[in-house]
Amino acid sequence: MRAGFYQFEPVFGEKEGNIENVLRVLKDVDADLIVLPELFATGYQFISHDEVDQLSEQIPNGYTTEMLAGLSRSKGIHIVAGLPEKHGGGFFNSAILTGPEGYIGVYRKTHLFFEEKLWFKPGDTGFEVFHTAIGEIGVMICFDWMFPESMRTLALKGAEVVAHPANLVLPYCPAAMPIRCLENRVYAVTANRIGTESRKGGQTMKFIGTSQIISPDSSLCAKAPENEESLEIADISLEKAKDKSLNPYNDLFRDRRPEMYRNA
Q1: pTM score of the predicted model
Q2: Share of residues in the chain with pLDDT > 90 (%)
Q3: Which of 109, 136, 181, 197 is catalytic?
Q4: Of 69, 100, 102, 219, which residue has the fewest beta carbons closer than 10 angstroms?
């Protein structure tokens, strides 16, 4: 699989312009899977429910999904991208997967971070692995990384590569993801954004960039700078993610003892 990410700085509220930028950058890309950041087309720092309502969309019938599905069909690529979703009378921080056949599925963020809790409902989809022609793709969003259960659940469900749209402001994730990949023997593609947003008085959010692709042995396949737009592609071997053995005696999943992990 040729997997990659596009790291850039969205302009808050300029949905059509942000999408046009992505379409322009990806029109000549040679890849099987591209991951875009969390809330890539809207920006992150909402300050009212009216903004959330105006910028959120239904999935799969919204503008963002239709545009990315069209790009996937025309180029024969899979895309994972984050967007605010309007669903069931509420709003979710969601990510879609599109492919050559168009829209494939949606994941709603399980672990909300900071003021996301003011605007979004906790996700209700659970962690799902999507079976595609290019491999088994799991999806999680940003702060989900902090909870080991997120990637472990995806790995146990058969994920070979975990697509990870993000808007990271804490510094820890880039150092933690190699451990997440090693303990689950999966690939991860973290697509972060860059820039700052200061839409709320006295509160500036600075996004740390450093998007990366990590292998099942924790090695770095590709990494972006902290403050620069970056499109990175890496060749990855999914056979490495299928192999959970460490030596002739130890297998990462067969050696698990769930009965010993429960709280009293």
Answers
A1: 0.98
A2: 98
A3: 109
A4: 219
38 is known as an active-site residue:
yes
Tell me, yes or no, if 181 is annotated catalytic: no
Give tens-digit pLDDT for 201-260: 889 999 999 999 999 999 999 999 999 999 999 999 999 999 999 999 999 999 999 999
| Domains of the chain, residue spans | 2-260
Residue 263 is predicted with a pLDDT of 82
- Radius of gyration in angstroms for the set of CA atoms belonging to the chain, rounded to a whole number: 18
- Write down the catalytic residue from 9, 15, 38, 121: 38
What distance in Å separates the CA atoms of residue 113 and residue 44, rounded to the nearest whole number? 11
pLDDT at 264 over 80: no
The CATH classification number of 2-260 equals: 3.60.110.10
Map tokens 């700078």 to a residue: 225
- Give φ, ψ of 121 to 5 degrees: -85, 150
Residue 96: φ, ψ to 5°: -110, 155
Band (262; pLDDT cuts 50, 70, 90)? confident
What per-residue string of b and e applies to 69-78 under the rule 16 or more CB within 10 Å gives b?
A: bebbeebebb
Tens digits of residue pLDDT in 43-57: 999 999 999 999 999
DSSP codes joined into one string, 152-206: HHHHHTT-SEEEEE----SS-HHHHHHHHHHHHT-EEEEE---SEEEEETTEEEE
Helix (H, G, I), strand (E, B) or coil at 242: helix
User: Does residue 239 have an active-site annotation?
Assistant: no
